[in-house]
Amino acid sequence: MSVLLLSWILGALGPQQASAAALPPPTQRESIPGAEVSYLDSPVGNGDRVRIIVTRPQGARGPFPVAFLVGWLSCDSVSWPQGPMFGLAHAWIDIARGAGYMTVRMEKPGVGDSVGPPCAKLDFERELAAYRAAYVVAMSLPDADATRVAVVGMSNGGGFAPLVPDRHEPRGYVVIGGWLKTWYEHMLEYERRRLTLAGTSPGEINATLARYETFYELYLIEGMTPGEVLRRHPEMRRDWQDADDGQFGRPAAFFQQLQRTNVAEAWSRVRVPVLAVHGEYDWIMSADDHREMVRMSISRGMSMSRELEAPRTTHLLERVDDAKEALEGSGAYNAEAGAEIVAWLKALAEHPPR
Predict the structure, then answer these.
(1) What is the full DSSP assignment across 17-54?
(2) The whole model's pTM is what?
(3) Residues 6 or more apart from 315 whose CB is under 8 A from it?
(4) 56 vs 62: CA distance, rounded Å
(5) Which region holds residue 116: left if phi is over 0, alpha if psi is between -120 and 50, else beta?
(6) DSSP-derived secondary structure letter, 313
(7) pLDDT for 22-66, tens place per residue?
């Protein structure tokens, strides 16, 4: 490793990290046919320390291109010692097994072996700091080709993925079920799609959305907690199905910080190819956002960029029979979509971005 790269890594990690205690070995380890799995950990610089899971193609010699995962909103683990439990996890294992890449994923602070506040209290800025520290580690791994890094953003991570590399742009991005608009706009679209699939009448949807406009403005823009909004507007209690201090298992501050984050501006600075994958039955994220990501990339001459609309597929990259089933349940992993992602990553690694 060069002195310049080492000094950059140490500077990015921060002075607090030298004294952070290493994590103990994991109590459960993954076994992936066709891949070698190893476990590292990294201090973040704010007292947190995160578990990093690395795979390398079995029996192959590096340097390898690197796929770095920027994960979903929930506090669900990215470690699957019993095997992948849902479609997005299957897609990641397919990349590890079949794309010829070294893969790197990080457990958020407070999840699994990682040290930090409980994930339910972890705000977005602290989560982003952890991803940035893990990305720096990924760049410096033995056998990693730092000139051929693909950032794979899944779900919420598909929106803010360009914020993670910071000073080192990757060779390309894969977005699976991401977002681009402001979080306020995203949530209003989300609520409309949810109500539509639930069978709510068009008139009642409009009436409910009018209340949600006020609710989300006070919550996301004015900085109130959901509970504070409901105390001011008790008539909205019937519309709110989540906690008084947060949403989707994360604190209110997490989403208020997302609202202040201009991800469209971050994507406008991307100068590498983008593969944007959206499920036909993904009611959580908008197909429009994926098309716009690709449009921006192609406008800058990135001919490899493309949108993949996976038929009869959910947000989790699972196949179902109809859109309403995507709201109520799950299905089998869409392996065909996974194969297209793997093929695109192979092509990205083999050719300069264009």
Answers:
(1) GGGPPPPPPPSS----TTEEEEEEEEE-SSS-EEEEEE
(2) 0.93
(3) 155, 177, 279, 282, 283, 284, 285, 326
(4) 9
(5) left
(6) B
(7) 999 998 999 999 999 999 999 999 999 999 999 999 999 989 999
pLDDT in tens, 230-287: 999 999 999 999 999 999 999 999 999 999 999 999 999 999 999 999 999 999 999 9
Q: How far apart are CA 134 and CA 50, in angstroms?
A: 8
Two structure tokens written together for 285: 């994220």
* CB-CB contact of 70 with 173 (8 Å): no
> How many CB atoms are located within 10 Å of the residue 67 CB?
29
SS3 for 307?
strand
- CB-CB contact of 56 with 35 (8 Å): yes
For residues 249 and 215, what is the distance between their CA atoms, to the nearest angstrom? 18
What gap in Å lies between CA 113 and CA 50, rounded to an integer? 7
Q: Give 63-125 as a DSSP string.
A: -EEEEEEE--SS---S--TT---SHHHHHHHHHHHHS--EEEEEPPTTSTT-BSS-GGG--HH
Task: Evaluate whether 164 touches 70 at the Cβ level (below 8 Å).
Answer: yes
The identity of residue 256, as a single letter, is Q
CB proximity list for 269: less than 8 A, separation 6 or greater: 162
